[in-house]
Protein: COI1 F-box domain-containing protein
Amino acid sequence: MERATRTSLTLRGNARDLHRIPICFTAVAQLDLSHLSPWGHALLSPSAANTDPLLLAQRLRDAFPFVTSLTVYSRSPSIVQIVSHLWPGLRRVKLVRWHQRPQSTLGADFDPLFSACQSLSELDLSEFYYWTEDLPPVLESYPNVARSLTKLNLLTTSFTEGFKANEIKSITAACPKLQHLLVACMFDPRYIGFVGEEALLSISTNCPELRVIHLIDTTSLANAHGEPDDDGFTAEDARVGRAALIDFFSGLPLLEELVLDVCKNVRDSGLALEVLGSKCPRLRALKLGQFHGICSAIGSKLNGIALCAGLESLAIKNSADLTDMGLIEIAKGCCKLAKFEVHGCKRITVKGLGTMACLLRKTLVDVSISCCKNLNAAASLRALERIRDRIQRLHIDCVWEPEDAHGFDLDQVNVDDYVGDGIAVNRNGDDGGDYMDLNWAAECENRSKKCKLGMDGECSYMPPSNGNGNGNGFWYGESWERLHYLSLWVGVGELLTPLPSVGLDDCPNLEEIQIRVEGDCRGRHRPTQREFGLSCLAGYPCLSKMKLDCGDTVGYALTAPPGQMDLSLWERFFLTGIESLCLTELDYWPPQDRDVNQRSLWLPAAGLLSECVTLRKLFIHGTAHEHFMMFLVRNPSLRDVQLREDYYPAPENEMSTEMRVDSCCRFEDALNRRPFLD
Structure:
């Protein structure tokens, strides 16, 4: 029954074994071929199989006759040509390529697809490297297919400059029925073809049915954790004014999700955001990057982004003048927020974030805090103390410096100070210099009274003598009992070991953790500690999945200068202690040497990974020597292993190690020859 009714399937076999595909999954409509082994090699090519590629293609067609959604790794236009003729009824296609674009004519990668698949409605190129000049001519050559497109994802992370203004105009003019548009572009006015007001207005004019829009500067894609400038403002302003934003928002009445990460100053945006809230009543998710003046928090009347009352997800990045009182205003107006992300806002403190968390206790379950000057790891967790029994997903930066002068005792915060009879709140220091009269709504006041009387099921009153109370009528648990996903950023050279001691010691249901280590190892001396601190995660009993991303850790792949460590020793430092964890799935990005474009698994890392005896799945996002990979065969439970060079530019011919096509096949044969009890 499962085989006969399954509609989605990802193939993970070796391309040479395509003739052994079972034919019992005939109902599959969504097929993913992008992870076949050897990863990144041409599908259905003579080098990948010993059988005629056309016979294998027909085998795929017979095994999966009703495919309408396809993901495939396309090294060359011939792959697109084959799969588009196999399934001419394709409606959704995702192309993947991290290797460099082959020398071919403009649009050669897309022409076969648009020619054969007349029903195409969704195209995802977010992991496909191509030239921005490739797409517009193809859309113009096949107007019927272009007009049928409803979803277009062009957030290609490997772009350096992204789509130019004239290309965005051409794309939106050719695809008037678009409902989802995600584009990597350049807002920097110093570049030719930068995106400004005219390009923005062309989007709303040409595609009035848009429901999801992501316009992200390529600088943000390349440096997701980049810290803001000293004062929070960039040297250049974006050429996007308040009037243009108002016209842009007014032309998109169906908008549900909006991301504008421009990486250049957009000043005095509060009024435009008020128009966004009124003209786009369906808006549920919003992310703003480098927007200033989003909420002035002056007087008792809500303004700016606080008037987007329907928001359920809000992300604010590098807003230089956002203060604690602004956060409180946002919590007051956006009372449905379930997800909140704040990045690079230097004027907010634990007091403002803690008060916001208290006010959103009933809805907030997903929080991300990064690059905020006054919010290190301990301060971030302290701010969320009252809702830690409700948080399900969390990201913090592992910055262990002592709390600065802006720290405060959360137990001294009483929500009644912000709810009720127009109490004046003093705003000093980094929060500004004015007084603000908070004349809160009666609904919020009633909620506070219900909490004190124990009438609200989401918030219970306990007497101060109870260890979990604070004397203000609120009770909060000591455990992060609902937390199932944790994300951490760690600067290179820092340790993970303080994590339990700052407040994350009791996470009984934590299942997945993602750790990103970033920085330059060059010039650093040996760490004083033997290990990074993965062993401290053994206190989380349900932890089974980990993503350890050291891909942005830069060092010496070969010989390091005296007194420093090469990448093999840094890998030993990062991975020591992983054997104490009961992981079943691990994604690992090795550190890199950018000078030689090499990300490799070295001998110490291979040995340590082989000792993690509970692992079932291991994906290494880099390369390795074959004899290092053979260490992993000793792991009794390991079932699925793959090397993925999913970074740009992936090497055309792997010469830094001997892990090529034949090496991958020998390793997989050795892995699969072992007996498996289950």
